Amino acid sequence: MILDVQDIHGFYGKSHILQGVTLQFAEGETVTLLGRNGAGKSTTLKAIAGVVAPQRGTVTFNGAKLGGLPSHKIASRGVCFVPEHRGIFRLLTVEENLRLGARKDSPWQLDDIYRIFPRLKERRTNGGAQLSGGEQQMLAIGRALMNHPRLLMLDEPVEGLAPVIVEEIVAQLKLIRQAGVAILLVEQNLEVCTQLADRHYIIEQGVIVYSGDNASFAADESIKDRYLGVGVV
Ligand SMILES: Nc1ncnc2c1ncn2[C@@H]1O[C@H](COP(=O)(O)OP(=O)(O)O)[C@@H](O)[C@H]1O
Ligand SMILES: [Mg+2]
């Protein structure tokens, strides 16, 4: 087991958002976290990454408890988080953004990122602010890879992107997965989810209400209707 999240509770001020989230996954697994808007998906990723501190419960990564560690310490253990708004530094160039996350022991160095996403090489001296949404997402993923992820957490990585860019990013996520990196994916596009994932969790009002493997999830329309609602695809 690479990640074991047990009964975490998370608050924003007095709002009790995560009400006991429990999830686990094995080395190299790709797992999605699905649910309606406001269900607590982003907050769960933030709690694992240490961006918001869980008030109760435990997060164990690779055998060690992460509770109370600052987010940069959690990242240096290999839990790499690509947040929804990608965290690109607008005034730094593409290459400067990539070097921020760089670790010498990562299997992905600058040239590897430029091979995976040739567009970033073309844009390497451009500022973050000049990139399209798709390029920003590639940059955010590239930066996470240079940080040597053992668990890559992505929050809606293809939201709002053109289909051709979605395909390019999904193809790269498949290769990252093949390289043995565990992936925790929050994504509204169910087709993308079922293409990539081994298993799925659904969260509702801060509690996990469903867990199933990809084949049973893909086959069961009633689950999607009940928990995700029509029009989520
Ligand atoms: N920074 C914040 N301050 C206060 N409430 C927040 C904040 N971020 C999210 N929330 C609330 O927490 C709940 C869960 O949000 P979030 O985890 O972003 O949901 P999801 O990612 O599933 O759409 C929502 O009700 C949202 O309004
Ligand atoms: Mg969200």
Secondary structure elements and their pairing?
Layout: E1 3-12, E2 15-25, E3 30-34, H1 41-49, E4 56-61, E5 64-65, H2 71-76, E6 79-82, H3 94-100, H4 110-116, H5 118-122, H6 133-146, E7 151-155, H7 163-178, E8 182-186, H8 190-196, E9 199-204, E10 207-213, H9 214-219, H10 221-228
Parallel strand pairs: 3-8, 3-9, 6-7, 7-8
Antiparallel strand pairs: 1-2, 1-4, 4-5, 9-10
Descriptive notes:
- By secondary structure, the protein is of the alpha/beta class.
- It has a single domain (3-228), classed as P-loop containing nucleotide triphosphate hydrolases (Rossmann fold), CATH 3.40.50.300.
- It has helices at residues 41-49, 71-76, 94-100, 110-116, 118-122, 133-146, 163-178, 190-196, 214-219, 221-228, and strands at residues 3-12, 15-25, 30-34, 56-61, 64-65, 79-82, 151-155, 182-186, 199-204, 207-213.
- Helix 3 runs parallel beside helix 6.
- The longest helix has 16 residues, at 163-178.
- Bound molecules: adenosine-5'-diphosphate and magnesium ion.
- The site of magnesium ion has 4 residues, from helix 1.
- Magnesium ion (MG) binds next to helix 1.
Helical content band: 25-40%
Overall average residue pLDDT: 93
Number of extended strands: 10
Which topology does CATH recognise?
Answer: Rossmann fold
* Low-pLDDT residue intervals, each spanning 5 or more residues: none
* Rg, nearest Å: 17 Å
Please give the alpha-carbon distance between the first and last residues.
31 Å
SSE pattern, N- to C-terminal: EEEHEEHEHHHHEHEHEEHH
Sheet/helix structural class: alpha/beta
Distinct small molecules bound, one entry per kind: adenosine-5'-diphosphate, magnesium ion
Summed up, the helix count is 10
The tally of structural domains comes to 1
Organism: Paraburkholderia bryophila
GO molecular function: ATP binding; ATP hydrolysis activity; branched-chain amino acid transmembrane transporter activity
Protein name: Amino acid/amide ABC transporter ATP-binding protein 2 (HAAT family)
Keywords: Amino-acid transport, ATP-binding, Cell inner membrane, Cell membrane, Membrane, Nucleotide-binding, Transport
